[in-house]
Amino acid sequence: MVEYRIDRHSGVATYVQIVQQTKQALRLGLLRPGDKLPTAREVVEATAINPNTVLKAYRELERDGLVEARRGLGTFVRRGLSTAPADSPLRTELDAWADRAREAGLDRDDVAALFTAALDRHFNGNGNSNSNSNSTGHGHGRPDDRQPAHDQHSQGDAS
Fold first, then answer.
1. N or C end: fewer C-beta atoms under 10 angstroms in the chain?
2. Assessment of whether the complete model's pTM goes beyond 0.90
3. 49: left (phi > 0), else alpha (psi -120 to 50), else beta?
4. What are phi and psi of 70, to 5 degrees?
5. Handedness of CA 28, 114, 123, 88 (dihedral sign)
């Protein structure tokens, strides 16, 4: 089951963070079709956010066709986004690279900038790789940041 971590200082609306973290878990294969998402009550207890914020995130995921609410049963994953499993060799290489970057004294923003630049080069048509326009280069270089935080002003619904 996914455990949501809310960063109240990120400038990203709380419900968007839940959507992004769910999509990241789907991409990594940590959530699969049929898996149950935590109930709104469980998320509220773990994160101290407003239940309506959780429901708003789940509704957006449902609109995207990723989850479905089953009355009286909960919210379940309908389809995954996984293309690279969490245990892939690429994940191992990336973890090792992140370790080296940290040992070299780079902070999270430095690493994110380097990673975003590499993504832009390889996925926005500037490099020799396949030109995949899913990555906009916005955000902090995490895979879940490819979605624009289009409602950053709605943080008032959090907490």
1. N
2. no
3. beta
4. -115, 115
5. negative
Q: Residue 157 CB: number of other CB atoms within 10 A?
A: 14
The helix or strand, by DSSP H or E, that contains position 115, with its residue range, turns out to be helix 108-123
Phi, psi of 102, rounded to the nearest 5 degrees: -65, -45
Give the other-Cβ count within 10 Å of 23's Cβ.
19
Closest CA to 119 of 88, 83, 144: 144
Backbone CA torsion sign across 25, 28, 30, 32 = positive
Q: CB of 58 within 8 A of CB of 1?
A: no
User: Per residue in 80-120, pLDDT tens?
Assistant: 886 666 667 887 898 899 999 999 999 999 998 998 888 88
